[in-house]
Specification:
By secondary structure, the chain is α/β, with parallel strands linked by helices. Helix content is about 50%, strand content about 10%. It has 13 helices and 8 strands. The chain has a 6-stranded mixed sheet. The protein has a two-stranded antiparallel ribbon with strand order 4-8. α6 (about 120-135) packs antiparallel against α7 (about 180-190).
């Protein structure tokens, strides 16, 4: 009994350990605040500051955006134009669906089959921004993000991402030098993470979207990159809603379905769901132990019966009986 219980506990411990290890990066994201690599407001020169002349420009002056075609909806004309007006000396690249596919087919043909296989258009819109930043460098900006000031101070970092609350980072605004090791890691990992998680929202988020990028970022941070290869983090107040922020937010185009509402509800009630999860796990564990113990106890009489039948004394007695019957028949 004690040995069986010990084996059961060891098996349960190994199973739980494997499950925790499988989601360890996601768990670490819950406590990652990005402060270690944050771009502090003290190191960002105010607009028209003379300090800008002393800062190096690492990221090329290119603005990337994506849309289905060149006909930008009216609700995004204003935020898009605000970025163009403030950055007339920047090169502007609009990546339509056709241009995106042509670029992948020409420059990264090994990824074309995966690119075409994505079931959701937003997945292709996600991945093209990673590829163009890795290839050309520059700054990517979603169409529902406007510019509140020039982005020149952000060009002094080899790469940067935006922090989101409560955890993780977003892919709506990003900057990078060409061939930065983080974005090379991102595009190399896309095929590995191309899985169907049954819920469209989760599939998009974890295959190409912000959750995927957050996992890539956390894994990259754990490698302890050198100073020139670091990915800096733009914190929420520097992103928007402050007088010194770089961006302004506008109404976006939601691709979320009904499953997203379920996910958001789960996010609001995560404490309750966690408690329920532990309770269910406990009940399942007890049921598994009950079944295991029943099988163990039911199997014990059968093993004892077999053992008695195969005991040496019984085998010798049976052998003598068989010999006697053989002699009687021969007589």
């Amino acid at each position: 009994m004690r040995r069986a219980l010990l084996l059961f506990l060891i098996f349960s411990f190994l199973l739980v350990g494997y499950l925790v290890h499988s989601v360890s990066t996601l768990l670490r994201l819950l406590v990652e605040d990005g402060s270690e690599d944050a771009i502090s407001r003290g190191e960002i020169p105010v607009p028209n500051s003379g300090l800008m002349d002393a800062r190096p420009q690492l990221i090329p002056k290119i603005i990337h955006q994506t849309y289905i075609n060149d006909s930008i909806p009216a609700r995004w004309q204003e935020p898009r134009q605000s970025c163009l007006d403030l950055h007339q000396d920047y090169e502007y690249k609009m990546w339509t669906d056709a241009k995106s596919r042509e670029f992948i087919a020409t420059e990264y043909p090994w990824f074309l089959e995966t690119f075409d296989s994505y079931p959701e258009p937003i997945q292709r819109a996600d991945v093209i921004r990673y590829f163009v930043l890795a290839h050309f460098g520059g700054v990517y900006i979603d169409l529902d993000d406007g510019c509140s000031r020039r982005l020149d101070p952000l060009l002094s970092y080899p790469a940067w991402l935006r922090k989101t609350l409560p955890t993780g980072i977003s892919n709506d605004v990003m900057g990078s030098v060409p061939q930065h090791p983080f974005f090379l890691r991102v595009i190399d990992s896309l095929q590995t993470y191309n899985r169907n998680w049954y819920f469209p929202y989760i599939t998009v988020m974890y295959s190409t979207g912000p959750l995927f990028l957050s996992v890539m970022w956390k894994q990259y941070v754990n490698t302890r990159p050198s100073e020139e290869n670091k990915v800096r983090v733009l914190m929420p107040e520097e992103y928007s809603k402050s007088t010194w922020s770089f961006f302004s937010t506008h109404l976006g185009n939601s691709w979320h379905g009904k499953d997203a509402k379920l996910i958001f509800w789960m996010g609001r009630h995560w404490v309750l769901l966690t408690a329920i999860g532990f309770a269910v796990a406990g009940v399942v564990g007890l049921c598994a132990w009950w079944v295991y113990s029943r099988v163990l106890f039911l199997g014990r009489p059968m093993r004892h019966s077999i053992a008695r039948r195969l005991s040496p004394s019984r085998l010798r007695a049976r052998s003598r009986k068989d010999d006697y019957e053989l002699i009687s028949r021969q007589a």
